[in-house]
Design a protein that fits this description.
Radius of gyration of chain A: 23 Å
Number of helices of chain B: 18
Largest sheet of chain B: 4 strands, mixed
Number of strands of chain A: 14
Helix content of chain B: 55-70%
Number of strands of chain B: 4
Shape of chain A: elongated
Strand order of the largest sheet of chain A: 6-7-8-3-9-10
Largest interface: A-B, 28 and 21 residues
CATH architecture of the largest domain in chain A: 3-Layer(aba) Sandwich
Order of helices and strands of chain B: HHEHHEHEHEHHHHHHHHHHHH
Oligomer: heterodimer
Number of domains of chain A: 2
Distance between the termini of chain B: 20 Å
Largest sheet of chain A: 6 strands, mixed
Radius of gyration of chain B: 33 Å
Strand content of chain B: under 5%
Structural class of chain B: mainly alpha
Order of helices and strands of chain A: EEEHEEHEHHHEHEHEEHEHEEHEH
CATH topology of the largest domain in chain A: Rossmann fold
Distance between the termini of chain A: 37 Å
Structural class of chain A: alpha/beta
Number of helices of chain A: 11
Helix content of chain A: 25-40%
Chain lengths: 310, 433
Amino acid sequence: MPLLELDRLIKSFGALRAVDGVSFAVHAGEIYGLLGPNGAGKTTTISMISGLLRPEAGTVKVDGAPFWSDPRRAKALMGVVPQDLALYEELTAAENLEFWGRIAGLDHQAARARSAELLEALALTDRARDAVKTFSGGMKRRVNLGCALLHRPRLLLLDEPTVGIDPQARLKILEFIRRLRDTGTAVLYTTHYLEEAETLCSRLGIIDHGRMLAEGTVRELQDRVGGDRLFVLEGAWAGAQPETWPVLRERYRLLQHSDRQLTVAALTPRDPADCLRELLALPVPPVNVTLKPPSLNDVFLQLTGRELRE
Amino acid sequence: MLRTLLAKDLRRARRNPLPWVIFLLVPLCTVALIGLAFAPRSQGEAGLGRIRFGVVDEDRSLLGRFLRGSGSYPEAAKYLEPVPLERAAALAELADSRLSAVVVVPAGFTRDFLRGAPVRLELIKNPAESIKPTALEELLGVLVAALNGLGRNFAPDLAAWHELLNRPAGDQRGLLDFLGDAAERERLTALFDSGGRKLAGLRGFLQPPLVGYTTPPPVAGARAESRGPGFSLFGYLLLGLGAMFLLFLGGAGMGDLHREVDGRTLARFQTVRVSLVPFLGAKVVFALVMLLACAAILFGGGGLIFGVTWRQPLPLFALTLAYALFIAGLMAAIVAWLPDQRKSDAIRTMAGMILGLAGGCAFPPDQLPPFYREHLMPWLPTHWFAATARALEFGGPSSPWPLAAGQLLATGLLLLALAAWLFRRRFLQEGRP
């Protein structure tokens, strides 16, 4: 049984439908990535799961029980790491952690012990007694993460936890999340960083304009685009209309087209050498051809017609 | 839970005390400035101190002697310190701000006055001062009115006196020779007689006096505040300004809710707990604790600094507690009503200012227009607190303190209920705080 299960979740703000029929499930010991550009509906989805927003339609089940039938139990099972830093800057790292531990229901001793344990795990012990306002962005992000873990949640919701921090700090956080997964915690991880999603998540859901466009493992999603490889053609195609060229129309999927570059994938598995010969014989031949495996950005490109990085 | 939340807020306030310190220092400094400017410096000395002014008697006349001697009358000496000087020296002292004004009796003043010709005294005020020169000008106005009255009623006699006192240049007679002359003696007698008759005619106007004044004891229900023997201007000001600045302090305390919303800590709380009531309740308790601590510093510390002895500390504490609850309720209602922090900050400050000033916190209420004082001000909670606290400590008419405390308590609870309703409505509408 999944620890978290969403079924056709809907939420609107006025005329804007922020989440439109989103469904997915997250199991224990799994990191499920929700990938989408800013404004796709990721934070609204997390807000509905954590009880900050009530869905208009659909259900959220936590450990098999609908969230709103027993929100107290559901909240006790989950830890939420908001996208914004929800910390008291005047307090020290230890005080912040102890405070949220007490709010989560731990007694004073337990909150203190767990706080010390988390500071150690997050490599913050030496700064435990310093005010959070003196911390770097990466350190604040780690404290922000720690504040959701005091009560040892079985389900962890992470809303873009690495926004705005340097690569080294990001690696530390990602490593910590992997360790949590290894302890059996179910993790829902929203991000718009493709590399993070590819390396961290066991399954992914791609969301845009409130709709779930595709779901599966990274490999499954790559297969949707075109198997193992894509052909990136460089040339001078200003004014050309490659979508009308018969070879491309019948045997390839045109993923991206600009004045200087075309990205295509074969519709059926074929020998790359055959493909190369065909592509070099296009009406306007390319000056350079590169082969590369499809990325999640290519998946997003194929699904939405635009790049995730836009 | 409440203790954890309260400890967190108190710790944060301790780590960032500047907003609280500012709101504490402003009323204390204001009281010190106003009090030092207007309070009596010692027993028997007038509030403004003595008015030191120069007398330049270029006429060498009776009026000049009168002005110079004004400081020797015990009652006048409390207020006036005349300094006889030559014009140049007087102007030099005035320029150095050692005099508040200079009164010049010009040469020929007495002669022209006795002749019935128009005459002028000269008053040169120190431009660097405002109150003392104006007070002296008023006093001089009284003297001029008296001289005018004398001139108009005794004009024929004055001319005769002038003729008598200013004998022709060739007349070298001594006083005895002069009085030995029967004709001159008869003239002099006639002048005394005429003056005496006019004064006798005036007696009916002067004695017994038709208009007088008295200082009756305070009447219950009267608005004018009497000031008992323990009256302290510092204490009076401190209670009023303290009441006003407690509103600002309460605004700062409850305004912390905006920081919790903007900092997403309230949302994080919502992801952990089901009910927001403990969070909001703790914020009200925090505002109350801070208000009471600040009131203790303002009234207790201020009392020590300015030497004010609070005669009714327990009723004053009870009144302050009820007032603190009212402030917490008012500020919570404003914060709940206005989600936008900048708007809310502005409205809370304005509300504090308006309620403080309109409630008579910053100045004596009996200076306000009667209609406002009698029909509008009694509805203001700031007035309930300030007037009752002042009456408790310094005497004067006011509601009994338990009634005022009850009114403040009831209003505070009502406002808290309104704030809770507004918060609930806001969260339901927006979906999240």
